[in-house]
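Example 3.2
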Amino acid sequence: MENSGLTKDDIFNIRSVFSNYPQIEEALLYGSRAMGNYKPASDIDISLIGDEIDLSLINQVEFDLDDLMLPYKIDLSIYHKIKNPELLDHISRVGKNLYQRRMNTDYISN
């Protein structure tokens, strides 16, 4: 993810945490790290998409992300719970896909 200030290892580790939660369908990076105007101490703003995401799940994910010992603060939000229209507009304009759950394409053919 270019111009985000995150290393490939950082991104891999964050995605690995998200992959442990089937409720997370997608994760969008937004804010200064998505726009490329971050500072070294800038937090990582991520909005999670999924119908079954609630605050309890967010707490579990935050706990797992803390275990990564990244040198950044990670701010998680639940996309479908955001009420601020300006924030929703910002995410839709500058948001970058950080994670997307792959659909299972295994099927039985005729």
